[in-house]
Write a structure and sequence with these properties.
The protein is mostly helical. It has 9 helices and no strands. The longest helix is centred in the last third of the chain and has 38 residues. It starts with 5 loop residues before the first helix and ends with a helix.
Amino acid sequence: MSQVSPRLAITITGTGTRFTRVLGVLAVVVMTWVVVSGLFLTPQDVVQGDAVRIMYIHVPSAWIAYIAFIVTAVASAFWILSKRHSMGFDRVAGASGEVGVLFVAITLVTGSLWGRITWGEFWQWDPRLTTTAFLFVTYIGYLAVRQLEGSIEQRARRSAVIALLAVLEIPLVHFSVVFWRSLHQKATVLDPNGDVKMDGLMLFTLFSGVIGFTLVFVWLVVHRQRTMLLGDLADQQGLDTAILARQNEGVSD
């Protein structure tokens, strides 16, 4: 059984506090630029008008959701393949899965708002929308499995298997606009033909959004896996040790 050292937990949580503060500041700076540029500096779209500004949230949130679920799968694979079955991999997988669900929810909400403006309806059983909703439900199920009773090793084992299966849905979601007729537009920036028809400032703001959302993603995962470490520590070593680790976060700064 993999055990968590109280001294190691204190070190990790203290280091994580400093790291997340730096990430938080960077995320705020980049996201402030995205908001200002997206709302006030970038031009309107010739067809969609101001509705195109939703793109600066919708597109980055979708891509970060993909990344989050891929990280969950990779961390789960490392847990399965590693000889010692380090629980750190499981905590990263779980934290990334939780954050991924958040970003998929943002994707669905902003996509619905965008659809209401461009299609006249909040929801269509379009291939991209339907597969994205299915992806969302799948990872809600993944998180539910992680909450089932059992040891942390049992939690890691069963959730790792589900994560490796669920990640196979991502290519289906991404290429759904190619496999079936879809109302959803095809790739604009990642056009296989390399023909990117987008204003330079719009493109720069969009990529800034991806960077900003990535920083937010990493910040949330680091913070969440740290709190999960304290939870595992409480289960293994007792509540007193977990409280001590939490108190030492402030002392270590």
